[in-house]
Write a structure and sequence with these properties.
The chain contains two helices and four strands, in the order H-E-E-E-E-H. With 84 residues, the chain is α+β, with helices and mostly antiparallel strands. The chain has a single domain, classed as Signal recognition particle alu RNA binding heterodimer, srp9/1 (2-Layer Sandwich), CATH 3.30.720.20. A four-stranded antiparallel beta sheet has the order 1-2-3-4. Helix 1 packs across helix 2. The longest helix has 18 residues. Pfam families: DUF1797.
Length: 84
């Protein structure tokens, strides 16, 4: 549960960084492998999660709810942790 809270805090930090960055973005990784990139778009208050598979193929998802975005990121990270 603390990992989910940590993800939500990072997403909230992105919301607060809008004045400092053009499009705030963060990477989430496990064991040095980038699993996804998250961007926050302030005008629409949406998050874009770009997930990378093992072959670096990309899939993008849009979320307008911070909790749902955090759960998606959490699932991506947990899936990688259980695969290893």
């Amino acid at each position: 549960m603390s990992q989910l809270i940590s993800i939500i805090q990072r997403l909230q930090t992105m919301q607060n960084a809008v004045e400092q960055e053009d499009i705030p973005q963060r990477f989430f990784e496990v064991n040095g492998r980038v699993l996804c990139q998250v961007k926050y778009f302030a005008p629409s208050n949406t998050y874009e999660v770009e997930e990378y598979d093992k072959d670096n193929n990309k899939q993008k998802y849009q979320f307008d709810d911070i909790d749902i975005a955090a759960i998606e990121i959490f699932d991506i990270v947990q899936e990688e942790k259980t695969a290893n």
